Amino acid sequence: MTVREYFQKYLEGKGMWPTDAALVMDIVIADKISEDVKWEFEKDDYPDKILAVLMVTVDLDALNWIKENQPEAWNRSMFE
């Protein structure tokens, strides 16, 4: 499983539709803070601590996307 697939499944596990999770991942990948991440690499190639830091970025970008696109989403609190 790639790093991108891992985080997309993570977002889906928090209640996002697969299409919405894919949109959020496009935003995360385009984020300047993520430019050095090799999203196509296998998840196991990254230490757990790095993945934990990336998870914070994914959650923040997901929350911002939810606020802009689905402010009444039932799962919004899972990202706050």
Name its key features:
80 residues; mainly alpha; 0% strand; 3 helices
Structure summary, number of beta strands: 0
The unreliable regions are none
Largest sheet: none
Shape verdict: globular
State which percent range the strand residues make up: under 5%
Overall pLDDT confidence: 94
Indicate the percent of residues in helices: 55-70%
Which class do the helix and strand fractions yield?
A: mainly alpha
What count of structural domains?
A: 1
Quaternary organization: single chain
Distance between the termini: 26 Å
The string of secondary-structure elements, in order, is HHH
Number of helices: 3
Q: What is the rounded Rg?
A: 12 Å
What does this molecule look like?
This protein is mainly α and 80 residues long. It has one domain (3-78). Helix content is 57%, strand content 0%. It has 3 helices and no strands. Helix 1 (3-13) crosses helix 2 (18-30). The N and C termini lie far apart (26 Å).
Short description:
By secondary structure, the protein is mainly α.
